[in-house]
Hints:
Elements: E1 8-10, E2 15-20, E3 23-28, H1 31-43, H2 54-68, H3 71-87, H4 100-108, H5 115-134, H6 160-167, H7 172-184, H8 188-193, E4 199-200, E5 205-208, E6 220-223, H9 226-238, H10 255-269, H11 275-288, H12 293-300, H13 306-315, H14 319-327
Antiparallel strand pairs: 1-2, 2-3, 4-5, 5-6
Helix pairs in contact: 2-3, 2-5, 3-5, 7-11, 11-13, 12-13
Amino acid sequence: MARDNKIWFWTKRGEWYVNIGTVRHRLGPDKEEAERLFHEMKAKKPETPLPGSVGDVFQNFLNWCTSKREESTREWYKDHLQSFLDFLPGQNLPLALLKKDHVYNWVDAHPAWGDAARRGAMTAVCRAFNWAEKNDKIDRNPLHGIEKPAPTAREDVISPAEYRKILKHITGPFRDLLVTAWETGARPQEILRVRAEWVELKQSRWVFPVKKSKGKKRRRVVYLTPVALEVTKRLMKTNPIGPMFRNTEGEPWNAYSISNSFTRIKKKVGKKYNLVSFRHSFVTIGLKKGIDPVTMQHLCGHADLSMISKVYGHVSQDVKHMQRALKKK
């Protein structure tokens, strides 16, 4: 039912909206402010419809990423953009018909996504339109002002007991992924990208080329425990070319396949984890065991002690740990 020239309240979202022509506009939760925005919109001259389609913008953006971004970064964008296109009424949806609600409804259609996953997905879509506007591919960004979930600090620490409980419910490729994350404290993207040619077996480590390392200023070295080394040796034989860590279908892991695997585990252990929590746990547990902050900094590949200090601040809140440390004096 048309509601032109009158604001209306969407109870589910807790916000005011108004329909002008075929476009629904989001006005926010405050009625007085919504009325003000509505009257401003009525006073403006109607905008010229944007030419082209959503698919055109995405393809141009991905073409640019091919030469300007890492392959893994381009694939990350491609996965999210294709998911959004698949959700739309048609992959050639005209830009003139694109609404912010298309994005909101898309992420709502994935209840397994947490706030971080939702924010990442929305960022990927918005970044394509930001790029198109900045490079004069479109006159304006139809998603300008879209509201994303606030970033949340991922500071969950997985205890050794929790870790053992998780392992009881997984086998195969996903087990290899989690075991390696737990044993090395490597960044998730490092585990997903590592290749057989970057492994130095005699030194029990992975050595990433400078251009493949975070910051692209120095080589990233990931040291392997005997357990992680055994996984690495096996995967080097199984996947000698390309990313070593692959899912049950033989494809490199990505955000979707990892999230889905964690969702399946949640049904058995009652909580959804993420790979960043494994890295955070590696640092926290290592510091409690007595690894000095400088050594931990290098194990984690940080350029300085700032991130380790942040984690150490949380460790200092563990009363029992601090009491044990004091007794060692």
